[in-house]
Design brief:
Blueprint lengths: L6 E7 L18 E4 L2 E8 L11 E8 L14 E6 L2 E11 L2 H7 L2
Antiparallel strand pairs: 1-4, 1-6, 2-3, 2-5, 3-4, 5-6
Length: about 110
């Protein structure tokens, strides 16, 4: 199944020295998208690179597992964290909203 392009983001992946991952992330990576004090599941697609290495800043499309929960809460230039459990492994900002409303309608 195609991963929805709910939002377009720019993500910086922390290095191991900064507490980040030791290995690269690939398409369909499923960490938590953290904002507003809460973790949400989101699948990643990296359209410009084959892998996102620690220390890289990459463009990513994110598809939420619960898209309806984010309508009206996510906006361009919003900052967020990428987490694995309670560990922050990346930081990013929303570039634009793309298919979020369509996804929310389709999955509800």
């Amino acid at each position: 199944m195609r991963i929805p392009h709910d939002i377009e983001t720019e993500i910086y992946f922390l290095t191991p020295a900064e507490g980040g991952r030791r290995s690269p992330a690939f398409d369909d990576y499923r960490p938590q998208f953290y904002y507003d004090g809460r973790d949400w599941d989101a699948r990643h697609i990296y359209p410009d690179v084959k892998q996102a290495n620690p220390g890289d800043t990459v463009r990513a499309f994110l598809g939420f597992l619960s898209p309806a929960e984010h309508i009206g809460k996510i906006y361009p230039d919003m900052m967020f964290e990428i987490r694995e459990g309670t560990r922050t492994v990346g930081r990013g900002r929303v570039i634009r909203i793309i298919e979020l409303e369509e996804s929310a309608t389709r999955f509800n």
